[in-house]
Amino acid sequence: MISREEVERTAALAHLTLTDQELEKMTGELASILDAVSSLQEVDTSAVVPTNHAVPLENVMRRDEQKPGLSRDEAVANGPDVVQSFFRVPRIMEEE
Amino acid sequence: MKLHTLEAWSLRDLIRDGSVTSTDIVESFLDQIRARDAEIGAYITVCGEQALEAAKHSDERRREGRTLSDWDGIPAAIKDNISVKGVANTCGSHMLAQYHAPYDAHVVSLLKQAGMPILGKTNMDEFAMGSSTEFSALKTTRNPWDRQKVPGGSSGGSAAAVASHQAPWALGSDTGGSVREPAAFCGLVGIKPTYGRVSRRGLVAFASSLDQIGMLTHSVRDGAALLQLLAGHDELDSTSVRREVPSYESVLGAGASGLRVGLLGGASQQGLQPEIHEALEQAACFLADQGAEIQEHAFPLLDKAIETYYLVATAEASSNLARYDGVRYGLRVEGSDTGEMFRRTRSEGFGPEVKRRIMLGTYALSAGYYEAYYRKAQQVRTMIRDGFLELFEKVDVLLGPTTAASAFGFGEKPDPLQMYLTDIYTVPANLAGLPAIHVPVGLDHGGLPIGLQITASPFAETNALRSAAVLETFARNRGWNR
Amino acid sequence: MIIGLEIHAELSTRSKIFCSCSTAFGGEPNSRCCPVCLGLPGALPLLNETAVEYGILAGLALNCTISVESKFDRKNYFYPDLPKAYQISQYDQPLCRDGWVEFELEQELLHAGVTRVHLEEEAGKSIHSGDNILGSDYSSIDYNRAGIPLIEIVTEPDLRSPAQAKAFLEQLKRTLQYIDVSDCKMEEGSLRCDANISLRPQGGRAFGTKVEIKNLNSFRAVERALDHEVQRQRNVLETGAAVVQDTRAWNEAKGVTVSMRSKEESHDYRYFPEPDLPPLAVNQVWVEELRQSLPEMPLPKRNRIMEQYGLGRYASDFLANSAIWADFFECAAKQYGNYKVLCNWLMGDVSRVLNARQEELPQSRLTPAALVELLRLVDDEIISGSQAKDVLEEVCATGRSSKQVTADLGMEQISDEDELTAMVEEVLAAHPEQAQRCREGEERLVGYFVGQVMKLSRGQANPKRVNALLRQKLQQ
Questions:
Q1: Mean pLDDT of all residues in B112-119
Q2: The CATH number of B3-251 is which of 3.30.1020.10, 3.40.720.10, 3.30.420.280, 3.90.1300.10?
Q3: pLDDT at residue C422 is higher than 90
Q4: For chains A and C, what is the number of CB pairs under 8 angstroms?
Q5: Which of the four pLDDT bands, split at 50, 70 and 90, describes residue C130?
Q6: Which among B184, B210, B232, B432 could bridge B385 via Cys, Cβ 3.0 to 4.6 Å?
Q7: What is the C-alpha separation between A90 and B345, in angstroms, rounded?
Q8: Which segments of chain A have a pLDDT < 70?
């Protein structure tokens, strides 16, 4: 059963702020979803390799060649706060 | 002549023998959009001017005998999570309401290279997360068959646009049924190709190992034609497969003779709407009459498909949607420092369903839970995929339902789990990367479309299309008329 | 004390690791970007084959096992310079593992284990408005660097002193430069180092808590920061307190490490396999091909040079420090047998002239053949040693041959017997009194007359020949 603290910790990892009310609701919803998915524990998966790709491929690579990308103006055109073609952000407080 | 009511093939014939121009066709659809879309709400962006401009160029090419393809001048609608250069790409979210893609998705390049005008971008559940298009943050899309019903989702705008003749065909994306379920609710053919068959480049990622671009069309042959245009290797998508594309059109008349068709029994088939159940049995009989060999198989593990799907999809989504942080594009809500700006932007930019899935996915990947949730789900996924591959040694295609019932009403599924269960028949194909096609076969007692799903082994779109064409005949015999 | 290092080196490929944008240093902000390295919605990565090859080469040079199967994973964390809010990296299946590096400190041969070498992508660059990150009102982000290929090299905790850490890092840099996979410019950030250090209290058995030090941007910083940290931890332990697990940043200006006050909980990066990139399967043929292409490594080269050319350790170290200098030397040595003289010229005047010109050897106009020609001119007494220095400068400046320069500057020595005899007679005749004293045995006056002849010949007379002729004449 997921606790309110775990939901808060998860929200912090996902950089989402939840109001008390949202937190309450989210805890209930996640609890019932997690309860439903817990039925997977019934499946014996010992020695089963996890599938990371729906279609198996390997060694997909390109040659080391330069090609033009976006122009500087195109690159920053969608930026919400662009100064002298830099993306500007408010001060950075911590590592994450 | 009402051009907009015709399937793409008929438009192609008309334009080819010179009876109509691309401009006539595009104008006819734009007129229909003006007449119908206020009520239906299929489009987020209509690209009227650009579409007419492209039609004009197409007509010039045709006059000068230098058409780009068989489909030069035939327009299409695009789901709003597939990038078109210079056009808004909202993903149905406040987060990207102002974002304009600076590049074309690979499939959009292919459409443009074929000379096809783009009518506009269609509504969808936010970031393709939903089964009714009710989770679009930008507008409501209504089912053209009954405006009190949802069009399905997440490609609900594309389905509604084609069903209400505001586009001859449309592109959608299918992560867990998002092309096939709205096709079912709107009475269209919906194709989800094999994972890797059509490039994902430029499709905004929801769950990268499950996403696949698909087609919503009036007929199987329209679907085959659009798939033919878009299938193939894209050297810039590492998950795109380098494998020859067969001719899809040529298999459509092959019939059912000798086809091995599997039916799955068991718990997963319980709770079907009686009309769908009945249609499934009749379709099996019809296929047998046409020379198919019908086999019954059990695949009990499919009962776990929905749980597996929701863990894998949300885990990948939590990572794919982390980039919406207010720095480079999209919404920014200012804060006193970067961390606060990130949290405000994301909390205001995402709707409740997206947040719920990001939360579930983040939790499933977090320290202490990864093994029990994410890894476990990927292991069960292996077993599901292996089960399918084993099954496809015995059968060529599987026949089954696409949805348990016809379209539901707005607000009818307020509980997230209930909404998730809508995808119960569609998610297995995504987990295993299989091609699957929805074919409409009739109407239920309420006058809403119902249909069936054909699933085939990886890259056996030919088998799926061939069977779908037979089902189309079956539907016509039952009186289905789009 | 035990020290382990984590080194990041940018690989010198032409294009980025997952897209075709340029990796060149500098450029207008956000001018070397595309949908992939900006993390635009819908963009997909495509792996650069050369980045993989460089990673394998680095692994081989560090004596690693190359993994037959490896894969990419997403490391999820939010930071404004990280465009996708995840870094594509390698988690549980790195490209290379279980290697070692041999290096020397004060002539002692040491070993350090290499745990792993893996590929990942570089982040963008943040420029802060104030003096430091916390004092800034805002920061400006440039993604030109985002997506440059990196290798992360993690060592075993095998290093036992700050000086060892520095010597290890120098050897690592030399090795990566030898195989030409990274330019390793610490000042441009293309080589970076973090260190983990813990002390074992006197008499104690168990090692203490591990402290991580970040931001070590020069070799000097590595040694100084670790020295400082050792002292700081000793001070803590002496008071009877415990060292707290911590991540600290080295402040170069103040010469101290400062706690980054990371949150109590460790990061939860939520690694999972990158669904956009299929796995890598590196077969033996590929590895062997790359192994064949590896050049001789610094230490074996140094030892061979000592033996083959009979040079001392200092001189051999100088040459083997860079493959380019060693190659230059060996190329010249094929045509010139006095290896010591050749090496002395490289260590002395050639280095001095290139430094003054702010040139590197490969960009210089000096070729091994030109240097050999110059040394022959000296040996054949056509020019003097001090003239040769002027000729070298001119050769480096103009690229003309040493002979040509010597002729153009009119520097050929006069060795012609008749011409010299005439000059000797002239000066003896001009100073009869000194000539007489000289004949009577005043030896030092020989030097005086040599000087007079040199003056008369404007420095071009061959002084050895002049000396001999003078003695001959004075004895007559």
A1: 98
A2: 3.90.1300.10
A3: no
A4: 137
A5: low
A6: B432
A7: 13
A8: 94-96
